[in-house]
Amino acid sequence: MAMNQQGRPTRPNENAATGGYADTISGSRGLDQAEPLIFERGRTDLTGVDFPELKGTKTRLGGLERKSDIGLPGLSEPEAMRHYVRLSRKNYAIDLGIYPLGSCTMKHNPRLNEKMARLPGFGDVHPLQPQSTVQGALELIGELAHWLMTLTNTPCVAMSPKAGAHGELCGMMAIRAALDARGETGRRRVLVPESAHGTNPATAVQCGFHCDEIPANADGRVDMEAFKAKLGPDVAGIMLTNPNTCGLFERDIREIADLIHEAGGYFYCDGANFNAIVGRVRPGDLGIDAMHINLHKTFSTPHGGGGPGSGPTVFSQALAPFAPVPYVVQKGETWHMVEHEAEARADGAEPFGRMVAFHGQMGMFTRALSYMMSHGSDGLRQVAEDSVLNANYVLARLKHVMTPAFEGTCMHEALFDDRFLKDTGVTTLDFAKAMIDEGYHPMTMYFPLVVHGAMLIEPTETESKSGLDRFCDVLEGLAEAAKSGDTARFASAPVHAPVKRLDETRAARNPVLVWQESEDQPQAAE
């Protein structure tokens, strides 16, 4: 008898009425398990572990003993494990699919890096160990510092900043220290292009500066005439992102650097987008005085979600003396950490101080150096080339159905605006919500602010052509659906996500942050 070659239909479009799913009694959909809050699943009068009553002991809490129930739900060990496993299945992750967030560089984190970060001696190092017992760790920090300076062509790097914004703070504090050392305490105006990252003006203000915005020209780059008009004796410097937040390279960066130096100021470059030029362009050759480097963006350490992060800051010869302590130096065959300002001054430096209790994030250093060494110089160059190639491929694939914000090619990210949605009844937000139903995290929406209805896509170098084609097919289909008048799918989206369409205004103004058993508790979302 011949085998049945037809089989059963398994694609989710069998049931269009329910989006491919049948209604279920449990609320689960196949392997997509319904999961209530842990407070709703457990009971506060039970505990998963029973402890015997203590006898014959005297309390040492000094009257601070708990007098009421703690109010936490009790679950058995399997119930607790299943709860968190089910929650993990509701998270979007780089291991699940492409993260098209622009200006965030959510790239694949190689498992080799994770293995190296967990090696004994790196994974269990303690910041209070004697320096003689952590020579390997100090050497690794020194090696990473060497390559960061080599890639940027700068003579100094501060490794202690914990993240990009912290690196910005480090750079601007060094600029202020340099100005104060020159006796020019009146220089407190910082020029900030409108295409810069939003943390730039916040950092400048925190350092005691005030910001003066520079408009962009029609090409999305710094308006040079406006920039020249703002130069003056009170200018402390400029904070410029290159490539900028519109995904464009600032072609006049050498002239900008020369003009700011002639005016007596310093050039701070936001290095968040260094992955677009690493191995091809050395920022030191462009005239920068300080630049932070996001290790998670360029060198594949994990996005920390607030930590752990690392944002080393490189300095030019002019600012190098003001770099903060601590820093690592090699003396003969021994590695030494200079931890005190007095010791640094004995070597001729003038550090502005100390930013952190300890030197940095050892796990991030190990991952970043592993990435560098596994790629080599040619591989790092290819990182930039593939980042730019992938972004321009997305731009080329979609520009016939979506509207690019600027003409021509881009760098590491493709920027679209909402003109293609005009008169469709579909908003930028609707478009983003529909992407969730398609199994994709939306790109960065409404940013940069200088572009109306912005949609910023950064595919990174770690995405394959086939993966980008699948992503572009979805966006192309959604754009065509919007133009054809199929507004219903957008207005109700997402319908397949664990959480449906939120009332975002109410959620922002009336967030429910604490679970309450009351049935009439206010809801932040419908």
UniProtKB/TrEMBL annotation:
UniProt keywords, alphabetically: Oxidoreductase, Pyridoxal phosphate
Gene that encodes it: gcvPB
SUPFAM superfamilies hit by this protein: PLP-dependent transferases
GO-annotated molecular function: glycine dehydrogenase (decarboxylating) activity
Catalytic activity: N(6)-[(R)-lipoyl]-L-lysyl-[glycine-cleavage complex H protein] + glycine + H(+) = N(6)-[(R)-S(8)-aminomethyldihydrolipoyl]-L-lysyl-[glycine-cleavage complex H protein] + CO2
Species lineage: Bacteria, Pseudomonadati, Pseudomonadota, Alphaproteobacteria, Maricaulales
Enzyme type, top EC level: oxidoreductase
Chain intervals for the UniProt region annotation (Disordered): 1-28
Domain Glycine dehydrogenase C-terminal: 385-482
Keyword Oxidoreductase: yes
Keyword Metal-binding recorded: no
Biased composition (Polar residues): 1-16
PANTHER family: GLYCINE DEHYDROGENASE (DECARBOXYLATING), MITOCHONDRIAL (PTHR11773:SF1), GLYCINE DEHYDROGENASE, DECARBOXYLATING (PTHR11773)
Residue span, Aminotransferase class V domain: 195-304
Function: The glycine cleavage system catalyzes the degradation of glycine. The P protein binds the alpha-amino group of glycine through its pyridoxal phosphate cofactor; CO(2) is released and the remaining methylamine moiety is then transferred to the lipoamide cofactor of the H protein.
Protein name per Swiss-Prot or TrEMBL: glycine dehydrogenase (aminomethyl-transferring)
EC number(s) reported in the record: 1.4.4.2
